Recover the amino acids of this structure.
């Protein structure tokens, strides 16, 4: 289990470095796959935290914090891949509004990064109500972007 986490974290860190150094994709398909993969991982790790917030799984600080740190890292990765011209066409649910309104999209992306950083600090503490409230704020940030920029 530990090895898997290490692999995922290493991958995320390496992808982060590569992502910022080479913000280019050979094909629009690659950009689409990349962002869907990152969003998928974000969804999985949010799900693990949600189970604890909702009491379906016992709250475990170490485990929760690990998931929060991962989502924080992941939330820094995909935004360039959304902004690639032409990547609103193909196997994607991204609305063309992203490319027409880049600033608004970037604002929504920044908002998630900010809320995730707050969740990590809350998760470092022991106030479970604060953690729950901040987890809710993160969820709102996801929904806010999806409502504007993702088709159903
Ligand atoms: C700034 C905008 C933005 C934010 C913030 C955002 N998303 Fe997304 N998300 C999208 C868009 C756009 C798509 C569609 C991507 C595509 O199909 O190319 C997407 C797709 C997804 C998918 C489907 C991935 C797949 O398998 O195709 C999941 C799951 C998801 N998001 C979860 C989340 C969660 C959970 C959060 C919050 C922690 C979040 N997203 C925050 C814009 C956002």
């Amino acid at each position: 289990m530990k090895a898997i986490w290490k692999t995922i974290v290493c991958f995320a860190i390496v992808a982060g470095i590569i992502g910022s150094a080479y913000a280019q994709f050979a094909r629009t398909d690659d950009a689409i796959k990349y962002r869907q993969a990152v969003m998928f991982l974000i969804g999985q790790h949010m799900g693990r935290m949600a189970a604890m917030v909702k009491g379906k799984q016992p709250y475990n600080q170490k485990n929760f914090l690990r998931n929060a740190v991962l989502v924080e890292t992941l939330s820094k990765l995909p935004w360039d891949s959304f902004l690639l011209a032409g990547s609103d066409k193909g196997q994607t649910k991204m609305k063309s509004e992203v490319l027409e309104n880049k600033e608004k999209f970037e604002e929504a992306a920044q908002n998630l990064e900010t809320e995730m950083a707050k969740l990590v600090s809350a998760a470092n503490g022991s106030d479970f109500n604060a953690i729950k409230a901040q987890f809710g704020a993160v969820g709102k940030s996801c929904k806010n972007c999806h409502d504007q920029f993702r088709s159903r």
In short: The chain has one domain: 2-149.
